[in-house]
Amino acid sequence: MRRKLLTLTAATALLATTALAGGLGSMTDDERAAFRAEVRQYLLDNPQVLMEAMEVLQAQQDQATAALEQTVLSENHDFLFNDPNSWVGGNPDGDITVVEFIDYRCGYCRKANEEVADLIKSDGNIRFVVKEFPILGDDSIASSRFAIAMRLLHGDDAYAAAHDALITLRGTPDPQTLARLAEDIGFPGQPVIDMMGDARVTAIITANHDIAQALNISGTPTFLVGDVLLRGYLPQEDMQRIVAEARAG
Length: 249
Prior knowledge:
By secondary structure, the protein is an alpha+beta fold. The chain folds into two domains: 2-75, no CATH class; 78-248, 3-Layer(aba) Sandwich (Glutaredoxin). It contains eleven helices and five strands, in the order ααααββαβαααααββα. Strand 4 (222-225) and strand 5 (228-231) form a beta hairpin. Helix 6 (138-154) packs antiparallel against helix 7 (156-168) and helix 8 packs across helix 9. It starts with a helix and ends with a helix.
């Protein structure tokens, strides 16, 4: 059996070399038929080769994706970490920055919210950046527009209050609900509702979507810790470990 496999492999290799040197088009009809038959039979006799080839291909694709991801992160470092249009919480002078792409209507974002807040509070040295990334429909977009409008009109503290209210809001974020929310925070509702349609609000959301697309981010929450991109919800202990690893370099 081993001799048969070696002979088959040698024949396949010889025909493959001929194919690579001159292309299948340079073969005679009989040579081309023989090449295809040998390759087919070899794969039927050794189906594990297909799995091995797929694993190699997947590894190559993963490496290429990781390299592209690091290039995009490097080229967009200032936008991701120091964009003046993104709210910064935690310790503004912290030694580690955690960036979160968030959608207020995302169940996993809501699940992660309290844990992220606990992590930031207990650590004390994390700088936290929020990227508004509404992807779950009109209610998500309205929520992000409201939060951004609050910041543009009333500053960071108002944004933080809006953020906390939106992440726990169970009803529909219609204009009446959002106006009441603004009033609960301490500001007139209608000016915020009017600001939600401002071009500056649209530009902020568009910029966040553009960088997310470049990084192939399609879900929330997505976190960036140092140069490590973390897709999806992570328990607090995992976040603590990743932050510690980022600190250690």
